[in-house]
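Quarterly update from the structural biology core.
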Amino acid sequence: MDEIIITVPETAAGQRIDKALSELCDFTRSHIQKILENGEVTVNGKVVSKGFKLSSGDEICFTPPEPQTIEAKPENIPLDVLYEDSDLLVVNKPRGMVVHPAAGNYNGTLVNALLHHCGDSLSGINGVIRPGIVHRIDKDTSGLLIVAKNDFSHEKLAAQIKEHSFTRQYRAVVHGKFKELSGTVNAPIGRSPKDRKKMCVTEKNSRNAVTHYEVLSQSDKFSYLKVTLETGRTHQIRVHMSHIGHPVAGDPVYGPKNGVTSLNGQCLHAGLIGFVHPRDGRYIELEADLPDYFKNFLKSQSLGNI
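Predicted structure, tokenized:
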């Protein structure tokens, strides 16, 4: 890529160079920091570190690295398929598996496994990196995902999600004890202004989000919930539970600092999915058993295995 030369405006005077460059250029702050750590950024001809404070009129020069092309390739990874026909399949994703390739996760994803399993029979609406992917769940959330094999099915299924007629029910263990044994969290979710990698409840640049929950069992420390999504925002259950003071156990992002590290991720499982078949109109509902890590945690906290 061509060298980029920037003259620091007065509005950026006094700022750290990594922060200023992330705002002045179309790069993330972490991307800028890597370039700085490699000694590839100069200010007025001298190499500087990420903590360098800028002055108005300084001349910044750097050459950004060529962007890495992400390509999804078939990989022979076992899939737990609960249902499959010529239009779609429903898979039970294990915890720890990323849904599609992205920076830092170029292989070993669900999409890599699907390409091997389905070949060219996946919808192309979401492009070559996310073929067939109608909806997603987080890397460390286990459970059911529906995958479209053609564009017709993809459009019909996506419309059901948009119309909130698509059933998605989760099981979760959260911190704390509830006074009311059921409830609804109706609070808009948007990108956190303090950390772009996190979501939060906010009125600014947000979308409506509704989560219904029911307490199945509880102790003094934890509660075992059935959670039903009315909408499907990024990190919705994790954000909403944290918002009402009951973060998901093991959640490294929205949970307490002294959380349950032994879980190695949030105790959250997409256990039930229901939808109208796009081709013949049948209502299909599928359930996936709780994974062992979830059952073991329920047992260790005397919450039962419901």
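The chain has a mean pLDDT of 90.
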